[in-house]
Amino acid sequence: MKRYLGFAAACLTALAAVVPVAVQAEGGDGHKAKNKQGHGGTATFHRSRGADGAVDRTVTGPAGRTQIIDRSKGADGATDATITGRKGGTTTVDRSKGADGVTDRVVTGPRGRTQTIDRSKGADGAVDSTITGRKGGTTTVDRSKGADGAIDSAITGRKGGTTTVDRSKGADGVTDRVVTGPAGRTQTIDRSKGADGAIDSTITGRKGGTTTVDRSKGADGVTDRVVTGPAGRTQTIDRSKGADGAVDSTITGRAGATTAVDRSRNADGMIDATITRKP
To answer: Structure pTM?
Structure first.
């Protein structure tokens, strides 16, 4: 599945305006990330809503190859998907809703191997998961709800290592997080709410590096973002709302490359997008 979804995932990163520096910090050690300069080009996303309300998607890449995601809603309300990759391989995602209302998932890749995600709801309402990989290894995610309503997690990997995620809600209602890895090193994410309601973050990585995420809300209500990494370099995401309500973005990377995400709303209310990257 990874092979066939790689391109779409890269484009979705731009669509979601995910910040590479912040991702590195939140998922890594908060230190300087490798600066990968991608190639320029344009990708388009076209979405359409079917009769059952499920949203299909066609992604066309810079070289003209396409990926198609065909979704359908089952009798239990869960949404299944068939993904046809750029080279013709097919991945299916079969979702089913259990008696407790939690949705399980079985993903079958182009070569027939499967990954299953089995979810269950505990007495406190937190949802646990057991993930069985394509080669049989299992990962468990045990969630519990604290007194302040924040959800903590204990994640046990295929090889037995455990990572804990301890969340706590501050006086301003914003949730902070401390992640402790199998080797005992920690990463902290300290969030605070600004006067305009936007949430800033200070991320301290496992090796001590610090990344700051400074958000500000513009006159049109859209939130911009400046990310400053441990080495002092910045990435900016400037958003603006169009007449149709769709939000466009201009992302300027740490080395100066820009990515423009131009969104437009089509007749059935779905948001299409054209993503253009300039190295």
So the answer is: 0.80
pLDDT of 227-248, one tens digit each?
999 999 999 999 999 999 999 9
For residue 177, which of 164, 194, 161, 190 has the smallest C-alpha distance?
Answer: 190
Between CA 115 and CA 224 the distance in angstroms is 37
Tens-place pLDDT, residues 93-131: 999 999 999 999 999 999 999 999 999 999 999 999 999
| Amino acid, single-letter form, for residue 13 | T
d(CA 65, CA 74): 29
Spatial contact of 229 and 21, defined as CB atoms under 8 Å apart: yes
User: From its phi and psi, is residue 62 left (phi > 0), alpha (psi between -120 and 50) or beta?
Assistant: alpha
Residue with tokens 């466009």: 248
98: DSSP letter:
-
Beta strands in 11-132 (DSSP E): 41-49, 55-60, 66-73, 79-84, 90-97, 103-108, 114-121, 127-132
Alpha-carbon gap, residue 172 to 193, rounded angstroms: 7
Query: Residue 30 burial by CB count (10 A; 0-12/13-18/19+): exposed, middle or buried?
Result: buried
Spatial CA neighbour of 116 closest among 95, 128, 132: 132
